[in-house]
Every structure is written in C-alpha cells, then in structure tokens.
Design goal:
76% of the residues lie in helices and 0% in strands. It comes from Gemmata algarum.
Length: 142
C-alpha cells in the first residue's frame, strides 16, 4: 500500500508542470501570423479613413464658427449685440481650431503606428517567401 501511494505521488509530481516547466502557448504558424498582420493593416487603413473624416468635420466646424463671428460682428457694429456674445463666438472659433489641431495630431500619431504595422507585414511576407536562388555564374572562356 505504501509503495502504491508513493508511486502515485511521484507520478503526479512528475506529470504536473512545475515553475520550471510552465506550459507555453503553441507557436503561431507563419501563414496564420501573416494573415493576422494583413488583417491588422487593413483594419488600420479603414481607421485612418475615419480619422481623415474627423479632420474634415473639424475643418467644417472651424468654418462654421468663423462665419458665425462674421455675422455677429455685423450685429455688434449695428448695436444689436452685446460684446459678450461676440466674445463667446470668437472663443468658439478658437475651440474649433483647437479641435482641428487635436484631430490632425491624432492622425499623425496613427500614421506612425500604421507605418510600423505595414513594416511588420512586409517583414513577415518577406520571411515567408523562399530566397531567390542565385543564377549560375558565367564561366569565362579559357
């Protein structure tokens, strides 16, 4: 009985992964990794288009705020508007310009991430292709 218990304990200890034998995730096959990188690059391209659209929307916001200031300036000059209202409209222009700057900066940061995603894809593509064999060297006539 003791011997059976001892064998069972030793078998369990050997079979269980210890700190030095932790299980590693299975390696990702190159074809799967390449597909993942292609998907990542395509998704990022679409996200870039969204960021460009946000910039367009911010540009429209700046133009709208500027038109509002022009309109209110005429009302202010005619005495039909308080100075505070005009000042508020000028602040709205500044806020719209700041939003535009934020959107442009976001696109620049995103472009850096996209550049590196494309580089990872290119590297993976090149690594998955077999090297080009060298053409035979021309022999010089004797």
């Amino acid at each position: 009985m003791r011997q059976t218990l001892f064998v069972a304990l030793v078998s369990a200890a050997v079979a269980a992964p210890g700190p030095a034998q932790e299980r590693q995730p299975p390696p990702v096959r190159p074809a799967v990794r390449l597909a993942q990188l292609e998907e990542e690059a395509e998704v990022m391209e679409a996200e870039r288009d969204v960021k460009k659209a946000h910039i367009k929307a911010a540009e429209v916001g700046v133009k709208a705020a500027e038109l509002g200031v022009v309109r209110l300036k005429k009302a202010l000059d005619g005495g039909a508007l308080a100075v505070e209202e005009f000042d508020r409209a000028k602040l709205e222009v500044e806020a719209a310009r700041a939003q535009l700057e934020v959107r442009v900066a976001e696109l620049k940061a995103f472009d850096v991430r996209l550049k590196f995603a494309r580089k990872r894809l290119e590297d993976a593509t090149n690594a998955s292709q077999p090297p080009n064999p060298r053409p035979p060297a021309d022999k010089a006539p004797n």
